[in-house]
Amino acid sequence: MRKVKITLPATLTNLGPGVHSLGLALGLYATVEVTERADETLLVEPEGEGAGRYGVGLQHPVVLALMRVFQRLERAPLGLTVKIANQIPLASGLGAEAAFLVAGLISANNLTGNLLSRAEILEMAAQISRRPDHTVTAILGGLTASILQDDRLVYHPFPVNAPRVVVVVPTIDNYPERVAAPERISFDEAVYNLSRIPLLVDALRDGNLTRIGSLMDDKLLTPLLRPHISGYDHVVEVARRAGAEAITISDNGPALIAFASTGHKKLAEAMEMAFENAGVKARSWVVPLDTQGVVVSIAQSA
Question: 249 and 222 in contact (C-beta within 8 Å)?
Answer without folding.
Answer: yes
